[in-house]
Design a protein that fits this description.
The complex is a heterodimer.
Chain A lengths: L1 H29 L1 H4 L2 E6 L14 H7 L7 E3 L5 E3 L2 E6 L5 E6 L13 H14 L8 E8 L2 E6 L32 E7 L3 E6 L12 E6 L6 H7 L4 E5 L1 H6 L4 E7 L2 E7 L9 H10 L2 H9 L4 E2 L24 H10 L8 E8 L3 H15 L4 E8 L1 H10 L5 E7 L6 H4 L16 H12 L3 H17 L4 E5 L1 E7 L2 E2 L15 E2 L2
Parallel strand pairs in A: 1-10, 1-11, 15-16, 15-17
Antiparallel strand pairs in A: 2-3, 4-5, 5-7, 6-7, 8-9, 9-10, 11-19, 12-19, 13-17, 13-18, 14-18, 20-21
Helix pairs in contact in A: 7-9, 8-10, 13-14
Chain B lengths: L1 H13 L1 H22 L32 H37 L1 H15 L3 H12 L3 H27 L3 H8 L4 H37 L11 H8 L8 H28 L1
Helix pairs in contact in B: 2-3, 2-10, 3-4, 3-6, 3-8, 3-9, 4-6, 5-6, 6-8, 7-8, 8-9, 8-10, 9-10
Classes of the chains: A alpha+beta, B mainly alpha.
Chain lengths: 504, 275
């Protein structure tokens, strides 16, 4: 009797459940074609603002790149392409930029984009001050309902890259909560610390996005990334480490690119010994770039010889990598001239943020490479990221530090302007009248070739002065489930989701 | 010395816990001592060709992510951890005993005011206090010792104060007072030896906490500075390679367990021996 009841109470429901599960499974199986029109992308931190003119974090901009567009936008090769504007002209003196509004372009809410919206957006972005370069704008004219003319205070042939700032509708009174743009995806919802959901904008002016529904899931716990990818709750994650890459199964395609930053041993030029160019050059001679890359990033990445990374093909000078070939004897001779020898070694500390393991590892390898000479003793001082930001970066209270500096706009200025003697963010305290002159030359040049040449001159001066010990651009790995394809690397901090499509 | 010897043999015969704990600790000390004199490789020497190698004849316990010999690093790392824990307990026990003794013996306003400060310190977890000190005075092993030492004062002060409160009303204290013995002499020569056993077991427990606190601080990247090794530092560096080279995390973890198990068993043994 007891046994029968057991059969009845347990076994039958179990059988029923199994059958039901099979039916449900069948349904899900039938929907696979549809499931790939939906993707979940892991992002490392929550976004700081939905208002395109207030957002500052690179991690926010790379997500909202899919929602907002400016008059122009960057493409994967690093060029600026038309977006809200269909074409533009620049006056001879590089003072006047005239844009033609794209025909029939609409906002996500269905309303047409007008020149008034563009005028409003540019002045609003200028008002928030998040993009300092916008202050160069003297006036925005709207001669008719198809054209916008931007007049600058001074000539700047490189100004276009700042006009990627989002165009938003003037009548939207709450851009902070209901963002409306013109991008390939429109905003659906946001749950703080959880996710941001966007969906394809069907009236997009350009190539429609390949995947319909996109969820950006916030993955605050870096250790869980591999498990979430393997478990299927996340389909893509940008910037995984090489150790994480090695743990992924063949369900994933791993795209290899570079992080687009200049990782260097930045030397505080105001710190006694580093004021001497011979000491800085000696450190460069002691560096073995390939050695560092072998240790820190399994030999991957790109060697750098100045403050410029290879994704900027137009400005990058590969020959600077060989300016200081590893030469211990030469380094020792230079150090001797500067007054350092085995009895009086050069001692300094390398401050590094403890949360960036690759920077900590780089510092350790560097200390080891410097020690080979017997004349340089580098100690390492790890600090917390916020301490690094306030003490090292802002207060410039350090001797040397390992960090990666990235570019916020598609312009060489992003990587070079900080080395002007009086730049606010010149955290290495580099000071060279020659550099300042070359940089001013680049700023005032109207002709593109002359401008490029002036930028290259800046890079050469930095390298010859050994302003810092330039090391590498770190490799970047993007994991994408093989259900999808089409990931594109940008020379900027951008995730172009519209380029992804279901693999077929 | 003779008394210590007698105590030792009493504990040794008394219980298994003490014997096991003592042997574990002795082996650990031997390991650390050998490491202080000689390691198979320099503990910071990197080897590009042997990154995260498994157990090989050249590197019996493998290498870490920069190709540094694990055995050598474990030897010096355990030594560093031990040194920090020892220094921490010394500072904590000394300052804590003095504060606790004065408070417990004299009582009154001094007791009230000092103990309220101690209470305030007690309200924070010791690792948080240490974090605060480290961010104020900088990192590095000596700063860590001082930071942790200060953070450990309250628990010692409380224990010792309790003992003194109990002892100060005893007849031998009263008679010593009547004989005109000075307060300081009574505190340190008459009462303190009687608090010795309680102090000893709290030193042993405090030692364990100090080992863990050092590991915690170094794990957070603000304790021992690279390229130096400590068990916490090694754990923190290995976490990225957990799947690829689990041994680089398991070995320092195992050594940490060994160290703590040895000391806490010995401490437990002493406590049991007193009953």
């Amino acid at each position: 009797m007891k046994r029968r009841s057991l059969l009845k109470s347990t076994l039958l429901p179990m059988i029923a459940m199994t059958v039901l599960a099979a039916v449900l499974g069948g349904c899900a199986g039938g929907k696979t074609a549809d499931s790939s029109s939906r993707i979940t992308i892991g992002i490392p931190q929550d976004i700081d603002s939905l208002d395109p003119h207030l957002m500052t974090a690179a991690g926010t901009k790379e997500v909202m790149f899919n929602v907002f567009e400016g008059l122009v936008k960057p493409d994967a090769s690093g060029d600026l392409v038309p977006a809200v504007a269909s074409e533009w002209t620049v006056s001879e003196d590089a003072m006047r930029y005239t844009f033609t509004l794209r025909d029939g372009i609409r906002f996500h809410d269905g309303s047409a984009v007008t020149v008034g919206d563009i005028n409003y957006s540019i002045l609003r972005a200028q008002g928030t001050g998040i993009v300092p370069a916008l202050s160069e704008i003297a006036v925005v004219n709207t001669p008719d309902d198809k054209h916008v003319e931007i007049v600058l205070n001074q000539p700047d042939s490189d100004f276009l890259c700042n006009l990627t700032c989002a165009v938003i509708p003037e009548k939207n009174t709450s851009p902070e909560t209901t963002p409306v743009g013109t991008g390939p995806y429109k905003f659906v919802s946001r749950s703080p610390q959880e996710n941001i959901i966007v969906t394809r904008f069907d009236d997009y002016w350009g190539e429609p996005a390949g995947i319909k529904d996109v969820t950006f899931k916030i993955e605050a716990n870096a250790d869980a990334i591999v498990m979430d990818l393997e478990g299927g709750s996340v389909d893509m994650f940008a910037r995984i480490t090489s150790a994480q890459r090695d743990q992924l199964s063949d369900k994933f395609e791993v795209y290899t690119g570079t992080m687009n930053l200049v990782q260097a041993l930045y030397l505080n030029n105001a710190f006694g010994p580093f004021a001497d160019v011979r000491v800085r050059q000696a450190l460069s001679y002691l560096l073995d770039r390939q050695g560092v890359m072998n240790f820190v990033s399994d030999g991957e990445g790109a060697a750098l010889g100045s403050s410029m990374y290879p994704a900027f093909t137009k400005y990058f000078l590969p020959e600077l990598n060989d300016l200081y070939p590893t030469d211990v004897d030469k380094a020792k001779a230079l150090l001797k001239e500067a007054g350092y020898d085995e009895a009086h070694p050069l001692e300094f500390s390398i401050t590094v943020a403890s949360n960036y393991q690759q920077h900590v590892d780089t510092a350790q390898v560097l200390a080891e490479q410097f020690a080979v000479s017997g004349v340089v003793k580098a100690s390492i001082n790890t600090v917390e990221w916020n301490t690094w930001l306030s003490e090292t970066y802002k207060a410039r209270n350090y001797e040397a530090t390992v960090v990666g500096v990235d570019a916020s706009t598609l312009s060489a200025t992003a990587l070079l302007s900080r080395f002007q003697s009086d730049a606010d963010n010149n955290f290495v305290n580099y000071s060279s009248p020659e550099y300042d002159k070359a940089y001013q030359e680049a700023m005032s040049a109207v002709d593109d070739a002359a401008k490029t040449e002036a930028y290259k001159k800046c890079e050469r001066i930095l390298a010859q002065d050994a302003a810092s010990v330039y090391i590498q651009d770190l490799p970047c790995f993007v994991a994408l489930n093989k259900k999808y394809t089409g990931y594109q690397f940008y020379p900027l901090y951008v995730q172009d989701v519209a380029a992804l499509k279901p693999a077929e | 010395m003779k008394r210590a010897g007698r105590k030792f043999s009493q504990y040794w015969r008394g219980n298994v816990m003490f014997r096991v704990g003592f042997v574990l600790t002795a082996v650990m000390l031997l390991f650390v001592l050998i490491g202080a004199i000689h390691t198979p490789y320099p503990p910071t020497a990197m080897n590009e060709g042997a990154k995260l190698s498994g157990f090989t004849p050249a590197h019996p316990l493998g290498t870490d992510h920069l190709g540094r010999d694990m055995l050598s690093r474990l030897m010096t790392g355990a030594g560093t951890t031990l040194l920090i824990a020892l220094g921490t307990v010394l500072i904590g026990a000394f300052c804590g005993s003095v504060i606790g003794a004065l408070c417990g013996y004299f009582g009154g306003l001094l007791d009230e005011s000092l103990m309220r400060i101690v209470d305030a310190l007690f309200a924070f977890p010791s690792i948080l206090l240490a974090l605060l000190f480290v961010s104020l005075f900088g990192s590095g092993r000596y700063h860590v010792i001082i930071a942790l030492g200060i953070a450990f004062i309250p628990s010692f002060a409380r224990t010792v104060r309790g003992e003194f409160l109990r002892e100060r009303g005893r007849d031998y204290v009263t008679s010593a007072r009547l004989h005109g013995v000075s307060h300081l002499r009574i505190i340190f020569f008459h009462i303190l030896p009687n608090a010795g056993d309680v102090l000893l077991s709290s030193v042993l427990i405090g030692f364990n906490n100090a080992v863990l606190a050092e590991a915690g601080l170094s794990f957070l990247g603000i304790g021992v500075q690279p390229p130096d090794a400590s068990l916490g530092r090694m754990l923190s560096e290995s976490q990225q390679y957990l799947f690829k080279a689990p041994m680089s995390a398991l070995l320092p973890g195992f050594l940490l367990v060994w160290m703590i198990l040895g000391f806490s068993l010995a401490g437990e043994g002493v406590r049991a021996g007193e009953r």
